[in-house]
Amino acid sequence: AKEQGRNRFNYFTPSMQEYARYRMRLIQDLRLAVEKQQFSLNFQPIVHMASGEVHKAEALLRWHHSERGFVSPAEFIPVAEDTGLILEIGTWVFENAARQSRDWQRKYGKPIQLSVNKSPVQFRDEGENFERWVGLLKELDLTAGGICIEITEGLLLDASSGVSEKLLAYRDAGIQVSLDDFGTGYSSLAYLKKFDIDYLKIDQSFTRNLEHDSSDHTLCEAIIVMAHKLGMQVIAEGVETAGQRDLLLAMGCDYGQGYLYSKPLSAADFEGQYLAGTDV
Ligand code: C2E
Ligand code: CA
Ligand code: CA
Ligand code: CA
Predict the structure, then answer these.
(1) Does ipTM come in above 0.90?
(2) CA 247–ligand 2 middle distance (angstroms)
(3) More confident call, 121 vs 1
């Protein structure tokens, strides 16, 4: 398959030029988007499986461009990373999630934890932004655990960038840590005991065929047992069917996230569906 990919790559030089043009425009538009703040956050509930309660949500970035319409984060995050724009965007995401968490907490009298995604590039280059965020959390008087960051496995293998110290600093600031897309990156498990991680998110590639593939079933089960023994809680991603939910629940999975429960929602819709009516 790799061989085929390379041949295709060689044949289509004109489309590579097209791609380069497309990318240039995307970068220009992304710069403008940062200036004009064309972003919003959607919130997808992370459901406590045993009780069905929602005290957590993942904040997912959305870009609405006047002509392009909705641009998927899968498309623009890599470009934002290459150009460094991710740093400004990341700050916007963090600040908005922190404010939203505080506002909901005030309004409904219960803490709601919002998770923000952080790519390794952000983690490495965020520099003094971190102090700014910690200042903001204090200013907002946000409860510990109001914000969680989602990082990926690759980051933990990058010993050079002081990851360990940074994760401790996050913890000191009351920020929790999730390991995202677990099982898709490097297979070294040594880092799981080396770093203090609160949640392990089972990637949706394992949940997808859970009902029909016995090795995926075994893997999910093993991941959950291991995580619990290491003091972590487990969030299953991409839960789409009641069958998947029931199997995961029987395995002792703590949280579920996926279309079965809800798609990512606008702030107003999330509030209406999961928070309103629960205020004291
Ligand atoms: P992710 O962190 O793994 O986020 C989960 C993705 O799975 C989201 O896609 C979500 O909409 C989708 N999803 C949720 N439930 C289901 C389900 O039941 N089935 C299926 N098939 N998909 C489901 P989305 O919002 O398009 O985001 C894609 C990726 O973009 C994210 O993957 C994350 O890596 C990145 N991303 C999103 N927001 C941010 C951000 O603020 N910063 C950074 N650095 N990356 C972000
Ligand atoms: Ca994530
Ligand atoms: Ca994920
Ligand atoms: Ca722990």
Answers:
(1) yes
(2) 22
(3) 121
